[in-house]
Amino acid sequence: MSALTELYEEIANCERCVLSQSRTNTVPGEGLEDAELVFIGEGPGFHEDQQGRPFVGQAGQLLDQLLESIGLRREQVYICNVIKCRPPRNRDPLPEEIEACRPFLDRQIELIKPQMIVTLGRFSMERYFPGAKISHIHGQPRRMGGIIYYPMYHPAAALHQRRWLQLIEEDMSKIPQLLAQADGIAEMELPQDAEQLSLF
Ligand code: SF4
Question: Which segments within 21-60 are labelled E, that is strand?
Fold first, then answer.
């Protein structure tokens, strides 16, 4: 059993926050265990909760298409969420729920050791860029601690407002080149507050 699979078992038994009371299944994440590219979304929705798999609904189908547009299949990357259990009625995750789930996401990243982390949506972005505005920083890579962090809009945004689709497609199209030129991206210090982020 891999360390990641052991972590999934730990997640399956987790009762650290109230979402454990309403979930059908935990949704730890899936994909290549040593993926160079990790996508982090917000949290499971209805279909994800039913199947125990991330991004299997409409937004997931769009993510699959976006991956295909850069020559990748989901088996070649790793996909997970900030929180591993579905919030009731798909409400936004609460700060204390994100905080409770934080060690699982941190451990996943430690184990996978990706070259690049793509955050999908503001809750995932907020995890690494607290206080930033996604409209200001999407599509702009930052290299910190040897990992490239790359904020993008959540694919669900494109389902509700088609004008976001073009932005998401554009940001996705830059990923192969960013990976190829990873060593050329200057290392930055992790931002401490929103004021620093406005400098980006
Ligand atoms: S969301 Fe995370 S912290 Fe909360 S119960 Fe599920 S696995 Fe545990």
Answer: 30-31, 37-41
Report CA(15)–ligand 1 centroid distance (Å): 6
* DSSP letter, residue 184: G
Q: Which of 33-42, 75-84, 105-114, 183-192 has the weakest average pLDDT?
A: 183-192
Per-residue pLDDT, averaged over 24-41, amounts to 98
Q: Given a cut of 80, is residue 153 above it in pLDDT?
A: yes
Give the separation between CA 33 and CA 36, rounded to whole angstroms: 9
With a 6 A CB cut-off, is 102 part of the ligand 1 pocket?
no
Pocket test for ligand 1, best of 13, 16, 82 (most atoms within 8 A of CB): 16
**Angle between helix 163-173 and helix 58-69 axes, rounded to 10 deg:** 40
Nearest residue by C-alpha to atom 2 in ligand 1: 101
Q: Is the CB of 11 under 6 A from ligand 1?
A: yes
187 compared with 146, residue with greater pLDDT: 146
The answer to whether 85 and 43 are in contact (CB under 8 A) is yes
Distance CA 68, CA 103 (A): 31
Q: Which atom of ligand 1 is nearest to the CA of 14?
A: 8
Mean pLDDT, the chain, integer? 92
Q: Could you report the per-residue pLDDT of 78-114, keeping only the tens digit for each?
A: 999 999 999 999 999 999 999 999 999 999 999 999 9
